[in-house]
Structure to design on (611 residues):
Protein backbone atom coordinates (compact mmCIF):
# COMPACT_ATOMS: atom_id res chain seq x y z
CA UNK A 1 0.00 0.00 0.00
CA UNK A 2 1.15 3.52 -0.75
CA UNK A 3 1.76 5.58 2.34
CA UNK A 4 -0.52 8.56 2.79
CA UNK A 5 1.35 11.69 1.75
CA UNK A 6 0.88 15.07 3.28
CA UNK A 7 0.08 17.82 0.80
CA UNK A 8 -0.07 21.50 1.42
CA UNK A 9 -2.88 21.95 -1.10
CA UNK A 10 -6.51 21.19 -0.50
CA UNK A 11 -7.88 17.90 -1.86
CA UNK A 12 -11.58 18.03 -2.63
CA UNK A 13 -13.94 15.14 -3.23
CA UNK A 14 -14.72 14.88 -6.92
CA UNK A 15 -17.74 13.10 -8.38
CA UNK A 16 -17.12 11.05 -11.51
CA UNK A 17 -19.85 9.62 -13.63
CA UNK A 18 -19.27 6.21 -15.19
CA UNK A 19 -21.81 4.77 -17.61
CA UNK A 20 -24.49 3.99 -18.60
CA UNK A 21 -22.55 3.60 -21.83
CA UNK A 22 -19.11 2.52 -20.76
CA UNK A 23 -17.09 -0.48 -21.92
CA UNK A 24 -16.27 -1.72 -18.44
CA UNK A 25 -19.78 -1.63 -17.02
CA UNK A 26 -20.65 -4.85 -18.87
CA UNK A 27 -23.99 -3.58 -20.06
CA UNK A 28 -26.12 -0.60 -19.32
CA UNK A 29 -25.06 0.28 -15.82
CA UNK A 30 -24.16 3.61 -14.33
CA UNK A 31 -22.27 4.43 -11.20
CA UNK A 32 -21.44 7.79 -9.74
CA UNK A 33 -18.16 7.62 -7.89
CA UNK A 34 -16.95 10.25 -5.47
CA UNK A 35 -13.19 10.19 -5.32
CA UNK A 36 -10.61 11.84 -3.16
CA UNK A 37 -7.37 11.71 -5.09
CA UNK A 38 -7.30 8.13 -6.31
CA UNK A 39 -9.40 6.73 -3.48
CA UNK A 40 -13.10 6.05 -3.81
CA UNK A 41 -15.07 7.78 -1.07
CA UNK A 42 -18.58 6.90 -2.17
CA UNK A 43 -20.35 5.01 -4.95
CA UNK A 44 -23.94 5.30 -6.04
CA UNK A 45 -24.96 2.54 -8.43
CA UNK A 46 -27.85 3.31 -10.78
CA UNK A 47 -29.64 0.38 -12.29
CA UNK A 48 -32.90 -0.08 -14.11
CA UNK A 49 -31.90 0.94 -17.64
CA UNK A 50 -32.80 -2.54 -18.85
CA UNK A 51 -35.95 -2.94 -16.78
CA UNK A 52 -38.64 -4.42 -19.00
CA UNK A 53 -41.15 -5.44 -16.36
CA UNK A 54 -40.40 -9.08 -16.89
CA UNK A 55 -42.17 -10.20 -13.74
CA UNK A 56 -45.34 -8.47 -14.87
CA UNK A 57 -45.06 -9.85 -18.38
CA UNK A 58 -44.65 -13.36 -17.05
CA UNK A 59 -47.91 -13.01 -15.15
CA UNK A 60 -49.62 -12.77 -18.53
CA UNK A 61 -47.72 -15.71 -20.05
CA UNK A 62 -48.68 -19.29 -19.48
CA UNK A 63 -46.14 -21.69 -18.01
CA UNK A 64 -44.82 -22.69 -21.40
CA UNK A 65 -44.28 -19.16 -22.65
CA UNK A 66 -42.50 -18.14 -19.47
CA UNK A 67 -39.53 -20.38 -20.30
CA UNK A 68 -38.61 -18.16 -23.20
CA UNK A 69 -38.68 -15.13 -20.98
CA UNK A 70 -36.39 -16.77 -18.42
CA UNK A 71 -33.79 -16.93 -21.21
CA UNK A 72 -34.08 -13.24 -21.79
CA UNK A 73 -33.29 -12.30 -18.22
CA UNK A 74 -30.22 -14.44 -17.72
CA UNK A 75 -28.74 -14.35 -21.19
CA UNK A 76 -25.35 -15.87 -20.32
CA UNK A 77 -26.69 -18.84 -18.35
CA UNK A 78 -29.94 -19.46 -20.16
CA UNK A 79 -30.15 -23.13 -19.28
CA UNK A 80 -29.80 -22.38 -15.58
CA UNK A 81 -32.62 -19.88 -15.80
CA UNK A 82 -34.83 -22.26 -17.77
CA UNK A 83 -34.06 -25.03 -15.30
CA UNK A 84 -34.97 -22.85 -12.32
CA UNK A 85 -38.26 -21.83 -13.89
CA UNK A 86 -39.14 -25.39 -14.91
CA UNK A 87 -38.23 -26.75 -11.47
CA UNK A 88 -40.62 -24.29 -9.86
CA UNK A 89 -43.54 -25.30 -12.07
CA UNK A 90 -42.70 -29.00 -11.82
CA UNK A 91 -42.54 -28.83 -8.03
CA UNK A 92 -45.91 -27.15 -7.88
CA UNK A 93 -47.52 -29.59 -10.32
CA UNK A 94 -45.77 -32.62 -8.86
CA UNK A 95 -44.23 -33.74 -12.14
CA UNK A 96 -41.32 -36.15 -12.22
CA UNK A 97 -38.86 -35.64 -15.01
CA UNK A 98 -37.67 -38.73 -16.92
CA UNK A 99 -34.13 -39.89 -16.31
CA UNK A 100 -32.74 -39.14 -19.74
CA UNK A 101 -34.13 -35.63 -19.74
CA UNK A 102 -32.54 -34.98 -16.33
CA UNK A 103 -29.13 -36.04 -17.63
CA UNK A 104 -29.36 -33.93 -20.75
CA UNK A 105 -30.46 -30.98 -18.62
CA UNK A 106 -27.45 -31.36 -16.35
CA UNK A 107 -25.05 -31.75 -19.28
CA UNK A 108 -26.35 -28.64 -20.98
CA UNK A 109 -26.50 -26.61 -17.77
CA UNK A 110 -22.92 -27.45 -16.92
CA UNK A 111 -21.73 -26.72 -20.45
CA UNK A 112 -23.56 -23.44 -20.12
CA UNK A 113 -21.68 -22.76 -16.89
CA UNK A 114 -18.47 -23.30 -18.81
CA UNK A 115 -19.47 -20.93 -21.57
CA UNK A 116 -20.54 -18.31 -19.02
CA UNK A 117 -17.26 -18.58 -17.12
CA UNK A 118 -15.35 -18.31 -20.40
CA UNK A 119 -17.22 -15.08 -20.98
CA UNK A 120 -16.12 -13.93 -17.53
CA UNK A 121 -12.48 -14.83 -18.15
CA UNK A 122 -12.46 -12.93 -21.41
CA UNK A 123 -14.17 -9.82 -20.14
CA UNK A 124 -12.28 -9.82 -16.87
CA UNK A 125 -8.99 -9.97 -18.72
CA UNK A 126 -9.98 -6.83 -20.57
CA UNK A 127 -10.90 -5.13 -17.30
CA UNK A 128 -7.50 -5.94 -15.88
CA UNK A 129 -5.70 -4.41 -18.84
CA UNK A 130 -4.85 -7.46 -20.91
CA UNK A 131 -6.52 -5.90 -23.91
CA UNK A 132 -8.00 -8.55 -26.14
CA UNK A 133 -5.74 -11.50 -25.48
CA UNK A 134 -7.85 -13.36 -22.93
CA UNK A 135 -10.98 -12.29 -24.75
CA UNK A 136 -10.01 -13.92 -28.04
CA UNK A 137 -8.86 -17.09 -26.29
CA UNK A 138 -12.03 -17.33 -24.24
CA UNK A 139 -14.33 -16.56 -27.13
CA UNK A 140 -12.80 -19.21 -29.32
CA UNK A 141 -13.67 -21.80 -26.66
CA UNK A 142 -17.06 -20.29 -26.07
CA UNK A 143 -17.87 -20.63 -29.73
CA UNK A 144 -17.41 -24.42 -29.65
CA UNK A 145 -19.89 -24.66 -26.76
CA UNK A 146 -22.24 -22.29 -28.49
CA UNK A 147 -22.21 -24.61 -31.52
CA UNK A 148 -23.47 -27.50 -29.40
CA UNK A 149 -26.27 -25.39 -27.97
CA UNK A 150 -27.23 -24.31 -31.45
CA UNK A 151 -27.24 -27.87 -32.73
CA UNK A 152 -29.43 -28.98 -29.86
CA UNK A 153 -31.85 -26.09 -29.54
CA UNK A 154 -31.69 -24.41 -32.91
CA UNK A 155 -30.73 -21.06 -31.46
CA UNK A 156 -27.50 -19.42 -30.48
CA UNK A 157 -28.75 -17.28 -27.63
CA UNK A 158 -32.37 -17.83 -26.65
CA UNK A 159 -32.50 -21.59 -26.40
CA UNK A 160 -35.95 -22.19 -24.87
CA UNK A 161 -35.13 -25.88 -25.02
CA UNK A 162 -36.22 -27.07 -21.60
CA UNK A 163 -39.89 -27.76 -21.03
CA UNK A 164 -41.92 -28.29 -17.93
CA UNK A 165 -41.50 -32.02 -17.42
CA UNK A 166 -38.51 -32.52 -19.68
CA UNK A 167 -37.16 -31.28 -22.97
CA UNK A 168 -38.60 -29.87 -26.15
CA UNK A 169 -37.20 -32.55 -28.42
CA UNK A 170 -34.47 -35.16 -28.60
CA UNK A 171 -30.85 -34.10 -28.89
CA UNK A 172 -28.98 -34.66 -32.12
CA UNK A 173 -27.81 -38.20 -32.88
CA UNK A 174 -24.14 -37.42 -32.47
CA UNK A 175 -24.69 -35.42 -29.28
CA UNK A 176 -22.50 -37.56 -27.01
CA UNK A 177 -19.64 -37.69 -29.48
CA UNK A 178 -19.88 -33.95 -30.08
CA UNK A 179 -19.81 -33.14 -26.37
CA UNK A 180 -16.76 -35.36 -25.86
CA UNK A 181 -15.05 -33.65 -28.75
CA UNK A 182 -15.81 -30.17 -27.43
CA UNK A 183 -14.84 -31.09 -23.88
CA UNK A 184 -11.33 -31.90 -25.10
CA UNK A 185 -11.07 -28.46 -26.65
CA UNK A 186 -12.58 -26.90 -23.55
CA UNK A 187 -10.02 -28.49 -21.27
CA UNK A 188 -7.24 -27.21 -23.49
CA UNK A 189 -8.91 -23.78 -23.42
CA UNK A 190 -9.11 -23.75 -19.63
CA UNK A 191 -5.41 -24.57 -19.49
CA UNK A 192 -4.62 -21.78 -21.94
CA UNK A 193 -6.42 -19.23 -19.81
CA UNK A 194 -4.88 -20.64 -16.65
CA UNK A 195 -1.41 -20.25 -18.17
CA UNK A 196 -2.20 -16.81 -19.47
CA UNK A 197 -3.75 -15.29 -16.35
CA UNK A 198 -3.18 -17.15 -13.09
CA UNK A 199 0.50 -16.45 -12.61
CA UNK A 200 0.63 -13.34 -14.76
CA UNK A 201 2.53 -10.74 -12.75
CA UNK A 202 0.38 -7.79 -13.86
CA UNK A 203 -2.86 -9.70 -13.48
CA UNK A 204 -1.93 -10.76 -9.94
CA UNK A 205 -0.95 -7.25 -9.00
CA UNK A 206 -4.26 -5.93 -10.26
CA UNK A 207 -6.30 -8.59 -8.50
CA UNK A 208 -4.77 -9.53 -5.20
CA UNK A 209 -6.03 -7.68 -2.11
CA UNK A 210 -8.61 -5.83 -4.17
CA UNK A 211 -12.24 -5.71 -3.06
CA UNK A 212 -11.81 -8.24 -0.26
CA UNK A 213 -15.06 -9.18 1.43
CA UNK A 214 -15.36 -11.24 4.59
CA UNK A 215 -17.60 -14.26 4.90
CA UNK A 216 -19.86 -12.51 7.43
CA UNK A 217 -20.49 -9.55 5.17
CA UNK A 218 -21.00 -11.79 2.16
CA UNK A 219 -23.71 -13.73 3.99
CA UNK A 220 -25.30 -10.56 5.34
CA UNK A 221 -25.56 -9.13 1.83
CA UNK A 222 -27.02 -12.35 0.50
CA UNK A 223 -24.20 -12.89 -1.96
CA UNK A 224 -24.12 -16.23 -3.70
CA UNK A 225 -22.13 -18.25 -6.16
CA UNK A 226 -18.43 -17.68 -6.75
CA UNK A 227 -18.48 -14.42 -4.77
CA UNK A 228 -19.73 -16.16 -1.66
CA UNK A 229 -17.37 -19.08 -2.06
CA UNK A 230 -14.38 -16.82 -2.66
CA UNK A 231 -15.14 -15.24 0.72
CA UNK A 232 -14.66 -18.63 2.32
CA UNK A 233 -18.25 -19.87 2.65
CA UNK A 234 -18.48 -23.48 1.59
CA UNK A 235 -21.89 -23.30 -0.02
CA UNK A 236 -23.14 -24.63 -3.30
CA UNK A 237 -26.78 -25.38 -3.98
CA UNK A 238 -25.87 -28.31 -6.19
CA UNK A 239 -24.50 -30.09 -3.15
CA UNK A 240 -26.20 -28.44 -0.18
CA UNK A 241 -29.78 -28.20 -1.42
CA UNK A 242 -29.58 -30.63 -4.28
CA UNK A 243 -31.98 -30.44 -7.18
CA UNK A 244 -32.28 -32.48 -10.36
CA UNK A 245 -29.79 -35.38 -10.24
CA UNK A 246 -26.73 -33.61 -8.85
CA UNK A 247 -26.33 -36.01 -5.89
CA UNK A 248 -25.27 -38.65 -8.40
CA UNK A 249 -22.08 -36.84 -9.35
CA UNK A 250 -18.84 -36.39 -7.47
CA UNK A 251 -17.44 -32.90 -7.62
CA UNK A 252 -15.44 -30.51 -5.48
CA UNK A 253 -16.60 -27.10 -4.32
CA UNK A 254 -13.70 -24.69 -4.61
CA UNK A 255 -13.55 -22.17 -1.78
CA UNK A 256 -11.35 -19.08 -1.51
CA UNK A 257 -9.37 -17.81 1.45
CA UNK A 258 -9.25 -14.04 1.13
CA UNK A 259 -12.45 -13.05 -0.64
CA UNK A 260 -10.62 -10.71 -2.99
CA UNK A 261 -10.96 -10.35 -6.73
CA UNK A 262 -8.16 -12.85 -7.35
CA UNK A 263 -9.96 -15.51 -5.29
CA UNK A 264 -13.12 -14.98 -7.28
CA UNK A 265 -11.15 -15.63 -10.43
CA UNK A 266 -9.52 -18.74 -8.97
CA UNK A 267 -12.85 -20.12 -7.73
CA UNK A 268 -14.36 -19.75 -11.20
CA UNK A 269 -11.34 -21.36 -12.83
CA UNK A 270 -11.55 -24.35 -10.50
CA UNK A 271 -15.31 -24.54 -11.01
CA UNK A 272 -14.80 -24.88 -14.74
CA UNK A 273 -12.69 -28.00 -14.22
CA UNK A 274 -15.37 -29.40 -11.92
CA UNK A 275 -18.03 -28.72 -14.54
CA UNK A 276 -16.00 -30.65 -17.10
CA UNK A 277 -15.87 -33.53 -14.64
CA UNK A 278 -19.63 -33.41 -14.04
CA UNK A 279 -20.35 -33.45 -17.77
CA UNK A 280 -18.01 -36.43 -18.25
CA UNK A 281 -19.74 -38.35 -15.46
CA UNK A 282 -23.16 -37.47 -16.83
CA UNK A 283 -22.19 -38.62 -20.34
CA UNK A 284 -21.06 -41.93 -18.88
CA UNK A 285 -24.33 -42.46 -17.00
CA UNK A 286 -26.63 -41.06 -19.69
CA UNK A 287 -29.30 -43.65 -20.59
CA UNK A 288 -29.02 -44.53 -24.26
CA UNK A 289 -32.69 -43.92 -24.88
CA UNK A 290 -35.90 -43.34 -23.06
CA UNK A 291 -38.60 -40.75 -22.88
CA UNK A 292 -37.67 -37.09 -22.54
CA UNK A 293 -41.08 -35.99 -21.31
CA UNK A 294 -43.36 -37.79 -18.86
CA UNK A 295 -45.74 -40.20 -20.56
CA UNK A 296 -48.85 -38.48 -19.30
CA UNK A 297 -48.51 -34.78 -19.63
CA UNK A 298 -51.54 -32.52 -19.55
CA UNK A 299 -51.94 -30.68 -22.79
CA UNK A 300 -52.33 -27.41 -20.99
CA UNK A 301 -50.19 -26.84 -17.93
CA UNK A 302 -52.26 -25.95 -14.91
CA UNK A 303 -50.87 -25.79 -11.41
CA UNK A 304 -52.79 -26.22 -8.19
CA UNK A 305 -52.82 -23.16 -5.98
CA UNK A 306 -49.77 -22.85 -3.84
CA UNK A 307 -46.38 -21.33 -3.73
CA UNK A 308 -42.89 -22.54 -4.33
CA UNK A 309 -39.39 -21.20 -4.13
CA UNK A 310 -37.14 -23.09 -6.52
CA UNK A 311 -33.48 -22.29 -6.84
CA UNK A 312 -30.57 -23.42 -8.93
CA UNK A 313 -26.86 -22.73 -8.74
CA UNK A 314 -26.34 -20.62 -11.83
CA UNK A 315 -22.80 -19.52 -12.79
CA UNK A 316 -23.46 -16.31 -10.87
CA UNK A 317 -25.07 -17.84 -7.82
CA UNK A 318 -28.52 -18.63 -6.57
CA UNK A 319 -31.05 -18.09 -9.34
CA UNK A 320 -34.34 -18.44 -7.56
CA UNK A 321 -37.96 -18.33 -8.65
CA UNK A 322 -40.65 -17.53 -6.14
CA UNK A 323 -43.81 -18.66 -7.87
CA UNK A 324 -47.24 -18.01 -6.38
CA UNK A 325 -50.17 -19.65 -8.10
CA UNK A 326 -53.87 -19.32 -7.54
CA UNK A 327 -54.51 -22.22 -9.85
CA UNK A 328 -54.84 -21.94 -13.58
CA UNK A 329 -52.30 -21.78 -16.35
CA UNK A 330 -50.47 -18.60 -15.42
CA UNK A 331 -48.49 -17.52 -12.38
CA UNK A 332 -50.28 -15.18 -10.01
CA UNK A 333 -46.95 -13.71 -9.00
CA UNK A 334 -43.50 -14.58 -10.14
CA UNK A 335 -40.42 -13.14 -8.52
CA UNK A 336 -37.04 -13.83 -10.01
CA UNK A 337 -34.35 -13.74 -7.38
CA UNK A 338 -31.40 -12.99 -9.56
CA UNK A 339 -27.90 -13.47 -8.18
CA UNK A 340 -26.60 -10.52 -10.18
CA UNK A 341 -29.01 -8.19 -8.40
CA UNK A 342 -28.09 -9.38 -4.91
CA UNK A 343 -24.37 -9.45 -5.66
CA UNK A 344 -24.41 -5.99 -7.15
CA UNK A 345 -26.06 -4.56 -4.04
CA UNK A 346 -22.78 -5.16 -2.19
CA UNK A 347 -20.81 -3.09 -4.72
CA UNK A 348 -20.90 0.06 -2.63
CA UNK A 349 -19.41 -1.54 0.44
CA UNK A 350 -16.84 -3.44 -1.61
CA UNK A 351 -15.64 -0.39 -3.50
CA UNK A 352 -15.42 2.29 -0.83
CA UNK A 353 -11.80 2.81 0.22
CA UNK A 354 -10.41 1.19 -2.92
CA UNK A 355 -8.61 2.88 -5.80
CA UNK A 356 -10.63 4.20 -8.69
CA UNK A 357 -8.99 1.81 -11.15
CA UNK A 358 -9.88 -1.10 -8.88
CA UNK A 359 -13.57 -0.20 -8.94
CA UNK A 360 -13.59 -1.52 -12.50
CA UNK A 361 -11.94 -4.75 -11.36
CA UNK A 362 -14.44 -5.21 -8.54
CA UNK A 363 -17.38 -4.69 -10.86
CA UNK A 364 -15.82 -7.06 -13.39
CA UNK A 365 -15.22 -9.72 -10.75
CA UNK A 366 -18.94 -9.80 -9.95
CA UNK A 367 -19.65 -11.04 -13.47
CA UNK A 368 -23.06 -9.38 -13.52
CA UNK A 369 -25.64 -9.71 -16.26
CA UNK A 370 -27.49 -6.42 -16.40
CA UNK A 371 -30.61 -7.92 -17.93
CA UNK A 372 -30.76 -10.19 -14.92
CA UNK A 373 -30.20 -7.30 -12.51
CA UNK A 374 -33.03 -5.23 -13.96
CA UNK A 375 -35.33 -8.03 -15.20
CA UNK B 1 -45.91 -38.60 -12.93
CA UNK B 2 -48.10 -37.75 -10.01
CA UNK B 3 -50.82 -35.27 -10.65
CA UNK B 4 -53.05 -33.91 -7.93
CA UNK B 5 -56.68 -34.86 -8.41
CA UNK B 6 -58.64 -32.80 -10.83
CA UNK B 7 -55.60 -30.99 -12.23
CA UNK B 8 -54.55 -32.48 -15.52
CA UNK B 9 -57.23 -32.29 -18.15
CA UNK B 10 -56.41 -35.62 -19.76
CA UNK B 11 -56.06 -37.45 -16.49
CA UNK B 12 -59.40 -36.09 -15.44
CA UNK B 13 -61.08 -37.12 -18.68
CA UNK B 14 -59.82 -40.69 -18.34
CA UNK B 15 -61.10 -41.07 -14.82
CA UNK B 16 -64.52 -39.69 -15.70
CA UNK B 17 -64.81 -41.75 -18.89
CA UNK B 18 -64.03 -45.14 -17.38
CA UNK B 19 -66.10 -45.09 -14.22
CA UNK B 20 -69.74 -45.30 -15.53
CA UNK B 21 -69.09 -48.28 -17.85
CA UNK B 22 -67.48 -50.68 -15.43
CA UNK B 23 -69.18 -51.37 -12.13
CA UNK B 24 -66.81 -52.13 -9.27
CA UNK B 25 -66.00 -55.89 -9.51
CA UNK B 26 -66.41 -56.47 -5.78
CA UNK B 27 -70.01 -55.27 -5.97
CA UNK B 28 -70.84 -57.52 -8.94
CA UNK B 29 -69.47 -60.65 -7.25
CA UNK B 30 -71.33 -60.00 -4.04
CA UNK B 31 -74.75 -59.59 -5.70
CA UNK B 32 -76.63 -62.92 -5.98
CA UNK B 33 -77.60 -63.95 -9.53
CA UNK B 34 -81.17 -62.81 -10.13
CA UNK B 35 -83.69 -65.41 -11.54
CA UNK B 36 -85.08 -62.86 -14.01
CA UNK B 37 -83.26 -61.94 -17.17
CA UNK B 38 -83.39 -58.34 -16.17
CA UNK B 39 -81.88 -57.69 -12.82
CA UNK B 40 -83.87 -55.16 -10.90
CA UNK B 41 -82.02 -51.91 -10.48
CA UNK B 42 -80.62 -51.56 -7.07
CA UNK B 43 -82.05 -48.93 -4.84
CA UNK B 44 -80.09 -45.74 -4.97
CA UNK B 45 -78.85 -46.11 -1.43
CA UNK B 46 -76.97 -49.35 -2.28
CA UNK B 47 -75.33 -48.08 -5.41
CA UNK B 48 -71.82 -46.84 -4.86
CA UNK B 49 -71.82 -43.10 -5.15
CA UNK B 50 -69.93 -41.85 -8.14
CA UNK B 51 -66.96 -39.86 -6.92
CA UNK B 52 -67.82 -36.23 -7.23
CA UNK B 53 -65.83 -34.32 -9.78
CA UNK B 54 -63.54 -32.34 -7.60
CA UNK B 55 -63.61 -28.65 -8.13
CA UNK B 56 -60.23 -27.01 -8.52
CA UNK B 57 -59.26 -25.83 -5.07
CA UNK B 58 -59.05 -22.11 -4.76
CA UNK B 59 -56.48 -22.01 -2.03
CA UNK B 60 -53.46 -24.07 -1.15
CA UNK B 61 -54.04 -26.44 1.75
CA UNK B 62 -52.43 -25.26 4.93
CA UNK B 63 -51.04 -27.85 7.29
CA UNK B 64 -49.96 -27.19 10.85
CA UNK B 65 -46.22 -27.79 11.24
CA UNK B 66 -45.29 -30.94 13.18
CA UNK B 67 -44.17 -30.63 16.77
CA UNK B 68 -40.60 -29.54 17.21
CA UNK B 69 -40.56 -27.45 14.03
CA UNK B 70 -38.60 -24.27 13.70
CA UNK B 71 -41.62 -22.08 14.46
CA UNK B 72 -41.65 -23.29 18.08
CA UNK B 73 -38.06 -22.20 18.52
CA UNK B 74 -38.95 -18.87 16.96
CA UNK B 75 -41.91 -18.45 19.28
CA UNK B 76 -39.62 -19.13 22.24
CA UNK B 77 -37.05 -16.65 20.94
CA UNK B 78 -39.63 -13.90 20.33
CA UNK B 79 -42.19 -14.47 23.09
CA UNK B 80 -43.98 -11.16 22.67
CA UNK B 81 -44.82 -11.70 19.00
CA UNK B 82 -48.01 -13.33 17.72
CA UNK B 83 -47.14 -15.99 15.16
CA UNK B 84 -49.33 -18.01 12.87
CA UNK B 85 -47.30 -20.92 11.59
CA UNK B 86 -48.20 -23.35 8.83
CA UNK B 87 -46.52 -25.52 6.27
CA UNK B 88 -46.56 -24.87 2.57
CA UNK B 89 -45.92 -28.40 1.29
CA UNK B 90 -44.53 -27.24 -2.02
CA UNK B 91 -41.98 -24.90 -0.48
CA UNK B 92 -39.76 -27.84 0.62
CA UNK B 93 -36.61 -26.48 2.24
CA UNK B 94 -38.24 -23.32 3.57
CA UNK B 95 -41.52 -25.12 4.11
CA UNK B 96 -42.46 -23.67 7.48
CA UNK B 97 -44.06 -20.30 6.95
CA UNK B 98 -44.81 -17.86 9.72
CA UNK B 99 -47.27 -15.03 9.43
CA UNK B 100 -46.62 -12.11 11.69
CA UNK B 101 -48.21 -8.73 12.13
CA UNK B 102 -46.08 -5.85 10.98
CA UNK B 103 -45.68 -4.59 14.55
CA UNK B 104 -43.97 -7.82 15.49
CA UNK B 105 -41.91 -8.10 12.31
CA UNK B 106 -38.68 -6.53 13.57
CA UNK B 107 -38.82 -8.49 16.82
CA UNK B 108 -39.32 -11.73 14.89
CA UNK B 109 -36.62 -11.01 12.33
CA UNK B 110 -34.19 -9.96 15.06
CA UNK B 111 -34.88 -13.16 16.96
CA UNK B 112 -34.53 -15.19 13.78
CA UNK B 113 -31.17 -13.67 13.03
CA UNK B 114 -29.66 -13.33 16.49
CA UNK B 115 -30.98 -16.34 18.38
CA UNK B 116 -28.38 -19.07 18.75
CA UNK B 117 -30.84 -21.84 17.98
CA UNK B 118 -32.04 -20.19 14.76
CA UNK B 119 -29.16 -18.16 13.27
CA UNK B 120 -31.13 -17.38 10.12
CA UNK B 121 -28.43 -15.10 8.79
CA UNK B 122 -29.07 -15.30 5.05
CA UNK B 123 -31.94 -13.41 3.46
CA UNK B 124 -32.18 -15.21 0.17
CA UNK B 125 -35.24 -13.51 -1.23
CA UNK B 126 -37.68 -10.75 -0.41
CA UNK B 127 -40.82 -10.47 -2.51
CA UNK B 128 -44.01 -8.49 -2.55
CA UNK B 129 -47.32 -10.09 -3.46
CA UNK B 130 -50.52 -8.21 -4.23
CA UNK B 131 -53.49 -10.19 -2.85
CA UNK B 132 -56.00 -7.56 -4.00
CA UNK B 133 -58.87 -7.62 -1.45
CA UNK B 134 -56.63 -9.24 1.13
CA UNK B 135 -53.98 -6.57 1.02
CA UNK B 136 -50.32 -6.55 0.17
CA UNK B 137 -47.91 -9.13 1.45
CA UNK B 138 -44.16 -9.11 1.95
CA UNK B 139 -42.46 -12.51 1.94
CA UNK B 140 -39.00 -13.07 3.43
CA UNK B 141 -37.17 -16.29 2.63
CA UNK B 142 -34.58 -16.87 5.31
CA UNK B 143 -31.85 -19.46 5.52
CA UNK B 144 -29.22 -20.36 8.07
CA UNK B 145 -25.76 -21.05 6.68
CA UNK B 146 -24.61 -22.64 9.94
CA UNK B 147 -27.73 -24.56 10.97
CA UNK B 148 -28.82 -25.37 7.43
CA UNK B 149 -32.49 -24.74 7.92
CA UNK B 150 -34.92 -22.29 6.41
CA UNK B 151 -37.97 -20.29 7.29
CA UNK B 152 -40.43 -18.17 5.37
CA UNK B 153 -41.75 -15.08 7.14
CA UNK B 154 -44.78 -13.24 5.80
CA UNK B 155 -46.47 -10.05 6.80
CA UNK B 156 -49.55 -8.33 5.39
CA UNK B 157 -50.59 -4.71 5.17
CA UNK B 158 -53.57 -2.90 3.70
CA UNK B 159 -53.66 -0.66 0.66
CA UNK B 160 -54.56 2.34 2.79
CA UNK B 161 -51.60 1.99 5.06
CA UNK B 162 -48.88 0.06 3.20
CA UNK B 163 -46.11 0.56 5.72
CA UNK B 164 -43.80 -2.24 6.82
CA UNK B 165 -40.77 -1.74 9.08
CA UNK B 166 -37.50 -2.06 7.22
CA UNK B 167 -35.09 -4.89 7.98
CA UNK B 168 -32.22 -3.33 6.04
CA UNK B 169 -30.34 -2.68 9.28
CA UNK B 170 -30.50 -6.38 10.15
CA UNK B 171 -29.94 -7.74 6.66
CA UNK B 172 -27.96 -5.32 4.48
CA UNK B 173 -29.02 -7.39 1.49
CA UNK B 174 -32.61 -6.30 2.08
CA UNK B 175 -31.70 -2.74 1.11
CA UNK B 176 -32.16 -3.15 -2.65
CA UNK B 177 -34.93 -5.70 -2.31
CA UNK B 178 -36.98 -3.23 -0.27
CA UNK B 179 -36.35 -0.44 -2.73
CA UNK B 180 -37.46 -2.69 -5.57
CA UNK B 181 -40.59 -3.72 -3.68
CA UNK B 182 -41.44 -0.09 -3.01
CA UNK B 183 -41.05 0.64 -6.72
CA UNK B 184 -43.27 -2.21 -7.78
CA UNK B 185 -45.91 -2.41 -5.04
CA UNK B 186 -45.79 0.91 -3.25
CA UNK B 187 -45.00 -0.72 0.06
CA UNK B 188 -43.18 1.81 2.21
CA UNK B 189 -40.39 0.37 4.31
CA UNK B 190 -40.28 2.45 7.43
CA UNK B 191 -36.75 3.15 8.63
CA UNK B 192 -35.04 2.34 5.33
CA UNK B 193 -31.95 4.54 4.96
CA UNK B 194 -32.47 5.48 1.32
CA UNK B 195 -35.91 4.57 -0.04
CA UNK B 196 -35.60 6.13 -3.50
CA UNK B 197 -36.60 4.45 -6.77
CA UNK B 198 -34.16 1.77 -7.83
CA UNK B 199 -35.40 0.19 -11.03
CA UNK B 200 -37.95 2.80 -12.04
CA UNK B 201 -37.28 6.39 -13.04
CA UNK B 202 -36.65 8.82 -10.18
CA UNK B 203 -39.93 10.66 -10.70
CA UNK B 204 -42.10 7.55 -10.87
CA UNK B 205 -43.18 7.40 -7.25
CA UNK B 206 -46.97 7.28 -7.55
CA UNK B 207 -47.48 4.38 -9.93
CA UNK B 208 -46.87 0.78 -8.93
CA UNK B 209 -46.53 -1.54 -11.93
CA UNK B 210 -46.79 -4.94 -10.24
CA UNK B 211 -50.04 -4.20 -8.44
CA UNK B 212 -52.96 -6.07 -9.90
CA UNK B 213 -55.01 -2.93 -10.50
CA UNK B 214 -52.41 -1.99 -13.06
CA UNK B 215 -53.08 -4.28 -16.02
CA UNK B 216 -50.79 -4.85 -18.93
CA UNK B 217 -51.43 -2.78 -21.98
CA UNK B 218 -54.17 -4.10 -24.19
CA UNK B 219 -51.87 -5.08 -27.00
CA UNK B 220 -50.04 -7.61 -24.84
CA UNK B 221 -53.18 -9.23 -23.54
CA UNK B 222 -54.50 -9.38 -27.08
CA UNK B 223 -51.34 -11.14 -28.23
CA UNK B 224 -51.69 -13.66 -25.46
CA UNK B 225 -55.28 -14.42 -26.47
CA UNK B 226 -54.24 -14.69 -30.07
CA UNK B 227 -51.58 -17.26 -29.36
CA UNK B 228 -54.00 -19.43 -27.43
CA UNK B 229 -56.76 -19.32 -29.99
CA UNK B 230 -54.31 -20.26 -32.71
CA UNK B 231 -55.45 -17.23 -34.65
CA UNK B 232 -53.99 -15.83 -37.79
CA UNK B 233 -57.11 -16.42 -39.88
CA UNK B 234 -57.28 -12.84 -41.00
CA UNK B 235 -53.82 -13.22 -42.50
CA UNK B 236 -54.80 -16.21 -44.58
Amino acid sequence: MVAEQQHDFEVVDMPINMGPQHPSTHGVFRMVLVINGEKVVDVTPHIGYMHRGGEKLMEAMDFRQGIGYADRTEYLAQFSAELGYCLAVEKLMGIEVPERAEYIRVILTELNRLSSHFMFMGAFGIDSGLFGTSFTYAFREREYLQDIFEEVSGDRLMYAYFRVGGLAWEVTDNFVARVHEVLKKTQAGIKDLDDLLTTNEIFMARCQNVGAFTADRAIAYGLSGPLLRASGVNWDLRRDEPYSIYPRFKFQIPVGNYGDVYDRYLVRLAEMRESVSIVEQALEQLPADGPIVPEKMPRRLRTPPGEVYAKVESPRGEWGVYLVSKGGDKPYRLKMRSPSFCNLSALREMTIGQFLADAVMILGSMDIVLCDVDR
Amino acid sequence: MTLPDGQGEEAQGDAAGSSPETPPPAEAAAAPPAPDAKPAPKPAAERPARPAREAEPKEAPRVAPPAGSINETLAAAAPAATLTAYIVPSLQGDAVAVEVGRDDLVAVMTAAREDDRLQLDYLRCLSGVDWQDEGLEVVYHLWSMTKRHGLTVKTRVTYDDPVVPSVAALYPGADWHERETRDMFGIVFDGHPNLVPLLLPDDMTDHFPLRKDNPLQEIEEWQGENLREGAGEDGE
The first helix of chain B runs from residue 9 to 18. Chain B touches chain A through 55 residues (CB under 8 Å). Confidence is low (pLDDT under 50) at residues 1-35, 231-236 of chain B. Residues 9 and 208 of chain B are 36 Å apart (CA to CA).
